[in-house]
Amino acid sequence: MKLSIVLSLASLAFTAPPSLDKFEQQPLTVQDGFDLDLNAQRLIQLAEGQASEWIELKALGLKFFDITDNQDLGNGIQSPARVKSSFPPPNATEKVIPILKTLSTQGPKENLEKFTSFRTRYYRSDTGRASQKWLLSRISEITAKTASASLQKLITFREFKHSWGQNSVIVRIQGSSTTDDGIVIVGAHQDSTNLWPFLPAPGADDDGSGSVTILESYRALLAADYRPVRTIEFHWYSAEEGGLLGSQAVAQDYAANSVNVIAMSQFDMTAWVKRGTREEAGIIIDYVDPDLTNFNMQLVDLYMDIPFVQTQCGYACSDHASWRKAGYPSTFTIESSFENSNKNIHSVNDRIDVSEEFSFEHMLEFSKLAVAFAVELGGYTD
Ligand code: BES
Ligand code: ZN
């Protein structure tokens, strides 16, 4: 069904003039501001353990784990044998709760209004590159404004470069430990897409919401002058919608360098409360680490003001799956059960103002979870 829409849209685009000449040359870039070769062959994997297959990009709908550039991810060659982490019950309430009280919807509102004002954040578009540069500059401003001078010395941010225009963004708060090299990652994806990539894609919920959710958590941690024992990283991945491309590249790089990631938590879609449903947090239980997911559920109970419900995507639906594939424990929390999640995603209607079901208060609950995840697993120094 989805595939047929994509195919018919694709044929529409190819028959639409600018000029017949241009059409006959089968240009690789079919629209200004997009660097997209629709004839490229991509290797995709439909389900875990299933054989992969080659497919032309123009025939690709969504729901594909595109493994073309990361075929070795998790095959054990580059990932060292790791000692499996255990996750004792959360016990840092004294540190976490005061930070939760400082979380606000104001920053997320301003940030999301700006982030959704880009026509699309598609990873191969000029505006997708511009939105990424804006994100980086916003992180830089928040850091300069919020973190004390001594805390700033512990913070670095960088672009993780990709071959397509939009880079992933990585912020690191250096841990104090000299003996524990474990790293805790909080992630979201910064790119958006329309089912047909050339059309507008505000991506307010998918995944503008997760992007600003974790940014607010980062701001609150800095405001609290939080100093972790283990290094904490915040990641904003590029090209999730292209088949988890950005997160696969980052996870592959970390595995190749034997980086000791002890836990990764993904935030993708945190804003929607479907009319007539109970407000809750959806805990994804497929393509995740069961122990870390169990720990994550304890965090929801302890720190969020809404209950959780276990749910499934049924496929490798977001960046947590890249980390899991690389052999690292990951967990994934969404706005509701999968069934009650926002159905406007991948369309021009994935907007803040599409309905009252889009809720910044709901989003704030997830900022609490990200703060708790960082502090409980990262530890703290006084
Ligand atoms: N945010 C979605 C996944 C999602 C959908 C999570 C509904 C929770 C509720 C994600 O950005 C996405 O669109 N993923 C693709 C698959 C990916 C491998 C390209 C999808 O679901 O089609
Ligand atoms: Zn999506």
Automatic annotation (TrEMBL):
Its cofactor is Zn(2+). InterPro entries: M28_fam, Peptidase_M28. Keywords: Aminopeptidase, Hydrolase, Metal-binding, Protease, Signal, Zinc. Residues 1-15 form the signal peptide. One of its GO terms (biological process) is proteolysis. Residues 169-364 form the Peptidase M28 domain. SUPFAM superfamilies: Zn-dependent exopeptidases (SSF53187). GO terms for molecular function: aminopeptidase activity; metal ion binding; metalloexopeptidase activity. Its EC number is 3.4.-.-. The keyword DNA repair does not apply. Belongs to the peptidase M28 family. M28E subfamily. PANTHER family: AMINOPEPTIDASE YDR415C-RELATED, METALLOPEPTIDASE M28 FAMILY MEMBER. This is Peptide hydrolase. It comes from Lentinula guzmanii.
